[in-house]
Amino acid sequence: MSSQYIALLVLLFAPAAQAAQQLDSLSDSARPRGGRVVLSGAGFGPAQGTRQVRVAGLSAPVASWSDATISIRVPEAAPFGPVDVVVVDGGSQSNALPLEVSARPSFGRVRWRVPIEGGVRHRPAVAPDGSVYVNDTAGLLYALDADGALRWIFDTQGQGAEGPVAIAADGTLYVASDPLGAGVRIFAVNPDGSERWSISDPASQGMLAGPNVGPDGKIYAVTDFTGLGAVALSPSGQVVWNEPGFAEQGQFGQDIVFGAPGRLYFCLSGFFESRGLDGQGGFTRDVGAVQRQVSMGPNGNPVVADTNAGANRMRGFDTSGSIVWTYSPIPTSTLSSPDHGPNGDVFFVRNGSTVTALDSAGNLRWAILDDNSFDSPTPSQSVLHGPVVDPAGTRLVIGGSRGFGQAGVIEAFDVADGASLFELELPFSGGGRLIPGSRPRFSVAGDTAFVGVNVVAGNGPSWLYALDVASAPDPNAYCRAGVHSDGGSARIGHAGSLRVSANDFTLIADGAAGGRPGLFFYGTAAVDVPFGPGFRCAAGTTRRLNPPVQTSVGGLAQRRVDFTQPPASSGAGAIVAGVTRYFQLFFRDGSAAGFNLSDGLAVTFLP
Questions:
Q1: β-sheet bridge partners, residue 336
Q2: What tens digit of pLDDT does each residue of 564-587 get?
């Protein structure tokens, strides 16, 4: 055989060379730890498999992977400053692109916020050690430390969050996902993010309620119509019992709640359902055509909204399904899901904007029409979701918006009399509004509320917010941010210590117009006055923090404040222990005025 013939065979039948991985761009040139970065390029491969994205040599958590686009989170251990980002496949890697890594900032009452790939529909779950877990409509489950540090992302290979995240006593997580096509899957996930087991219900169209862990350690859920229906699973994933035949107009998800003596409760297609933990001895009550979350009182009796025949009543039941009390507010067009305080009081929202409190017997305690006049330049009637009571029974936290089509807001009320405790207006982002998508969940101590927030009519990720609800935070965000030409609003926060002796205080602004020059400045007095398309928040003796900064593509800017150098070191604007200074970012913008500003940050410095 000739050498030419052998060479021809080699060319014809040798494996094709793998396409080179080419990294063309990053969605942003600067992000904090845990921040979202989208890589664009070619040859990444159709699925992640064993491939990795490395940031400063560290494997980055991956949220999505395709041949041309990868979404990652900046590793929590990534060093601050410029680092390289590469895509690695076995022994080969792509070209490197630079990324500036910063600390994860706090924004006044917002202790932290982390980006979520898909929408957030369900309340996060909080473990006894403070860990926070949340799932999204992209089928991803996120594990976070109490300080917001991302530990891992588990991909259910589904297309949506089909119910809440449940935590067992041994730390096992249970979450449902809707794969492409028919069926629904329930996953058991180990605390380290590895899969323990999964069970599929191929005849179902989705999850209607649960999964939730019962007091007996079993996992309870309700799947749609032709599937398993109401089902109890053992901790090893075996079906203990099931009852088919439940349906709903779409999979909205809810928690199954449990009460004595050994009963579970849920509400679907207008029917309030109860079963024993063995699947026996149940009841069904007609409560109207709207699905609502059931709330369990401390006495073991459930409360649910009854919208039958358009009457819109809140009703308390006993364990046999008999009506104990009825509250019929007139006129009422809508009722939110209720929530109980530890003393048995019931809280809900009627007509979308009237926060209402009943005692344990169903008698009205107080009702507050929330018109968002608190710290609002344009008072309007709110649109609020269902309230949640903190563990101590001292405050309610509710998400909603300032009105239809207006900015999102998270509010807190005193349970004693409905007095407003605070309102947090959410920024605009990617041309849309950030609106709470889940009811809050509190930390074990009750001082932090975790709320899922989604982008409406805009681009960009969803968020999980961690809010300080127990005190007036310092530093404190105040004033308002104008909406700039990129469709967002800039928020100013900080990282590092407030101690002058530590000298590591850093200002971080996010959400500004991308790729624009800007300048941080501060004053000795706070104001809140219109200034061009935004608001001026700092006045009195003002000082510039030179040199100017350049916002990243995604609108992030930062400036370390050196207390040993002017202007902070001396003069009328000096920063010393005990003084309060008011910070803001001014930046160039494509608006008619040519500029815009962030909101303000009030900081009282320590020795």
A1: none
A2: 999 999 999 999 999 999 999 999
Query: For 415-435, how does the pLDDT look when each residue is reduced to its tens digit (9 = 90+)?
Result: 999 999 999 999 998 888 999
E strand or H helix at 13: helix 3-13
Q: Which of 583, 528, 461 is nearest to 142 (CA)?
A: 461
How far is the C-alpha of 112 from the C-alpha of 105, rounded, in Å?
7
Each residue of 501-539: pLDDT tens digit?
Answer: 999 999 999 999 999 999 999 999 999 999 999 999 999
Neighbour-count burial of 51, counting CB atoms closer than 10 A to its CB (0-12 exposed, 13-18 middle, 19+ buried): middle
Q: How far is CA 222 from CA 108, 164, 483, 566, in A?
A: 40, 12, 43, 64
Determine what percent of the chain is predicted with pLDDT higher than 90: 77
- Going by pLDDT thresholds of 50, 70 and 90, the confidence category of residue 6 is very low
pTM for this structure?
0.92
How many residues appear in the chain?
607
Distance CA 490, CA 479 (A): 12
Q: Dihedral of CA 418/420/426/432: which sign?
A: positive
Indicate the SS3 state at residue 549.
Answer: strand
Q: In the chain, what is the greatest distance between 2 CA atoms, to the nearest angstrom? A: 99
397, 388 contact by CB (below 8 A): yes
Residues 6+ apart with CB under 8 A from 139: 118, 155, 156, 157, 158, 159, 160, 161, 177, 178
Rounded-to-integer distance, Cα 358 and Cα 85, Å? 55
Rounded alpha-carbon distances, angstroms, from residue 264 to 25, 204, 207, 227: 51, 21, 17, 19
Neighbouring CB atoms inside 10 A of 328's CB total: 12
Cite the DSSP H helix spans in 109-205.
none
* pLDDT, mean over the chain: 91
Structure tokens at 145: 């430390």
The answer to whether 491 touches 481, Cβ cutoff 8 Å, is yes
Those residues with Cβ within 8 angstroms of residue 508's Cβ, 6 or more apart along the chain or in another chain: 32, 102, 103, 105, 492, 493, 494, 495, 556, 557, 558
Closest CA to 350 of 383, 310, 304: 383
> Across the chain, how many H-helices and E-strands are there?
1, 54
